[in-house]
Design brief:
The chain is mainly α and 324 residues long. The chain is 74% helix and 1% strand.
Amino acid sequence: MSIASVTATNDAPASAILPARGGMLGALSDLFWRRPRFLLVLMLLPPLLWLGVVYIGSLFALLLQSFFSIDEFSGLINRQFTLKTYADLFQPANFDIIVRTVTMAALVTLASIAVAFPIAYYAARYAQGRWKALFYLAVMLPLWSSYLVKVYAWKLILAKEGILTWFLAKLHLLWLLDGWLALPYVGGNSLSVSATGTFIAFVYVWLPFMILPMQAALERVPGNLVEASSDLGASPGQTFRNVLFPLALPGIVAGSIFTFSLTLGDYIVPQIIGTSRLFIGQAVYSQQGTAGNIPLAAAFAVVPIVIMGFYLWGAKRMGAFDAL
């Protein structure tokens, strides 16, 4: 082929190479090609509408309901703007529910950190090949089973006739369990109807959400920093406090976002495993269902949102989102 023919081919109009598509589809194709931002808007519009109407719209309706009040005589909702419902949250019975829930969420988060750190450190520093695959399988496997199945399984394990009581009886440690269950606030008739049982179930259910971000953060810690700390005479405790923990902190905070927020709003675990003392999720269900006090239920539901807003703000300042 001569140079002239190649030049003529290159100068040929695009329609000679790719025939133009006519009709409505052709016009739309040309429009999307010339204006890619218009195509992007069309692709994002349905999910944004769903998010705005269903999610943000429901939150706005919830917030609006919390500024109403309930008429104490008729039981009807008084749709006048007031802060009385929020003031009711500070009544001793309601405020006790908030304190109990936040305390449980904080304790579950701290326990999850203590349990997850050695597992995540081993996976990040030592596990290779098949062992790392086995690690991910072991962490993710509980997430593949039903949430309700796991909670009811723990109820059977922690019951008075459960395997944990049987195991402690074999070790002649029932006196220790009975002494613990006799303590106020944390005890009960058995572990399956105690605050301790609720705590154990929470830690088990949310532990994978702490392990994975922590392991991702620890994998980013250069191994030579740990070795340099040891070469400079630092003890293992000093290395942990001054090297490992500060560098792993974003991952720890990222995992705590999950454990803290999920405990804060959970309803099922304290309903199945726990005492008659309510948590925020149970209070919301009770107020909007049995009591019919929708404004107070909405005010209770706003509490975790406000708490997590401040929590996420602090987590962002610590760079926790980089470890997600």
